[in-house]
């Protein structure tokens, strides 16, 4: 009887673990690209500085989510950070 309960529970746990790694590679790639773009970014004017600050806050949040294995949120934040870095370089 215990075996019949253990098998489905074990399967459920394994599926949960597999789901956590779905965005792992994307998270790492987006963060890598964003940090490279950040090192090249030159803020233009006040608006550019605001966009740059937003990008840095998002990158910090993305890195934190990566550490806690919240990879989907990490990808979203890193993509938004890259957007703000492009806006910063454009002076917006």
UniProtKB/TrEMBL annotation:
Source organism of the structure: Stutzerimonas degradans
Could you tell me the superkingdom of the organism this chain comes from? Bacteria
The UniProt keywords, alphabetically, are: Signal
Q: Per its record, how is this protein called by name?
A: Lipoprotein
Q: Does the keyword Signal apply?
A: yes
User: May I ask which residue range the UniProt record assigns to the signal sequence?
Assistant: 1-20
């Amino acid at each position: 009887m215990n075996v019949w309960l253990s098998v489905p529970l074990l399967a459920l746990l394994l599926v949960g673990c597999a789901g956590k790694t779905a965005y792992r590679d994307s998270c790492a790639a987006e963060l890598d690209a964003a940090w490279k773009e950040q090192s090249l970014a030159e803020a233009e004017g006040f608006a550019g500085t605001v966009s740059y600050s937003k990008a840095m806050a998002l990158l910090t949040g993305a890195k934190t989510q990566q550490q806690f294995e919240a990879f989907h949120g990490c990808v979203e934040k890193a993509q938004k950070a890259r957007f703000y870095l492009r806006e910063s370089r454009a002076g917006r």
